[in-house]
Amino acid sequence: MGQRKAPKDGDRKVGRRALLIGGTAAAVGSAVLARDELARLWWRVPGMEKPRKAGEVDFAGARWVAASDANWRRADRPDDYGVGMVIIHVTQGSHDSAVKAFQDPGHKAAAHYIVRQDGRITQMIRELDVAYHAGNRDYNERSVGIEHEGFVDRPQDLTDEMYEASARLTARICARYDIPVDREHIIGHVEVPGTDHTDPGEHWDWDRYMKLVREARTAPA
N or C: which end of the chain has fewer CB within 10 A? Predict the structure, then answer.
């Protein structure tokens, strides 16, 4: 995590190294590849791996619990894939059952974050990396996924604490990647092309949530 002074939650810095990657790849005769693809080969270049620390989180106050390696893909976002969306999910179960599922290599899916009903946040995949959460490869590569503890048919599961904590998290993600705070860029899982999921469901209050995100986005750090 980088040492950005202004944000209170200790966001990591995001850098750019596409030119370095492109130059290295060209030197070994890979100039036929598109520059966008070359940037995605950063981890193959000696000494170019972005520093990572065990247990590091992208949102201060989140608790780190690692998802199974089978449920996400190592990347270097936003240098290789630009992050331009936040996707909202509901777990259809408890926080603990979601954690267990995301730690299961046979599950083949996981989100970056889980927000509990009491407002506490668990991070299971770094924002650097591609989580398998949306059921659509392009959307996975360019989004951050946030799960929320509960069931889509139980409006009582969507607590004040959950809405407020999730809104602060989404606001920081939007600030980090310069994502517009609107419904084109903050979407539900149900809105992902090709998905068969219905979450966050009819009881998710989008008007309330977006208002909270905007307030958190403009609040002093």
Answer: C
